Amino acid sequence: MRITGWFNMQLRRYGPFIVLLLLILACWETAARTGIVPAFILPAPTAVWAALLSQAPLLLGTHLPATLTEALLGFALAAGGGTVLGAAMHLYGPLEKALYPLLIISQTIPMIALSPVFILWFGYTLWSKLAVVLLTAFFPVVVGTFDGLRAGGDMYKDLLLTLGAGRRQLFFKTQIPMALPAYFSGLKLCIVYCVIGATIGEWLGGGKGLGYYSRRTAGNLQSAEMFAAILLLALLGMALFLAMALLERIILKKRGLLL
Questions:
Q1: How many CA atoms lie within 13 A of 107 on its CB side?
Q2: Among 194, 240, 232, 192, which Cα is nearest to 213's?
Q3: Do 123 and 18 lie in a common domain?
Q4: Would you say residue 259 lies in a domain?
Q5: DSSP letters spanning 115-146
Q6: Distance (Å, rounded) from C-alpha 218 to C-alpha 40?
Q7: Residues of the domain holding 238
Q8: Which residues does 201 contact at the CB level (< 8 Å), separation at least 6?
Q9: pTM for this one?
Q10: Cα–Cα distance between 225 and 217 in angstroms, integer?
Q11: pLDDT tens for residues 76-116?
């Protein structure tokens, strides 16, 4: 009964999206099959699905694990480094004034221009992909950590100071717990950007991975296979985002920050 209720709730919440998605797929299939759009430009969804099934051993056995490994390692680096940097900027004002402009500048540089630099430094290795992922994904974590700590705990600050709390107690008892919603928002963006960064790194200088596979198939005009790789990338990003959202819900509910 509980499962049925949950399913009905999700159906009501995402019913319009499902209807819209089915309508888009139907129009897409019709346009491809009637020749309105050439198949080498936009293959039919059924052709993409057939290509995914035929290439499943290669895609799921070689390229998807490579992209997933790069994304997860990059996420670990971006989340760890971004959390430490954001907290340090909050605790030490001069560090914020010195680094915040550099962080913003780093996000204005096109990644496609920096990728050859990373390849020059690290070669066609895992480290060049991780450098791309790190530069792509760490910014939301830094901002989420810094803004969350700066805004968190203000409503309890005066009360705790009246009770004799020190700066360390304020930081751990109020600022960190109240910063968790903003922090997890940064993590959810980060983990999606990690997939994007891994794909960019593979596209510009890789020997395996979904980005490398999509570049190779695009060069051979294998549009159905290319769209199959894009579909897997989309599903990978959605799966990682949902996993992070589930972790957020568990932790916030445990901390009493979520009803």
A1: 12
A2: 232
A3: no
A4: no
A5: HHHHHHHH-SSHHHHHHHHHHHHHHHHHHHHH
A6: 10
A7: 43-254
A8: 70, 115, 118, 128, 129, 130, 131, 132, 133, 211
A9: 0.85
A10: 6
A11: 999 999 999 998 988 888 888 888 888 888 888 877 777 77
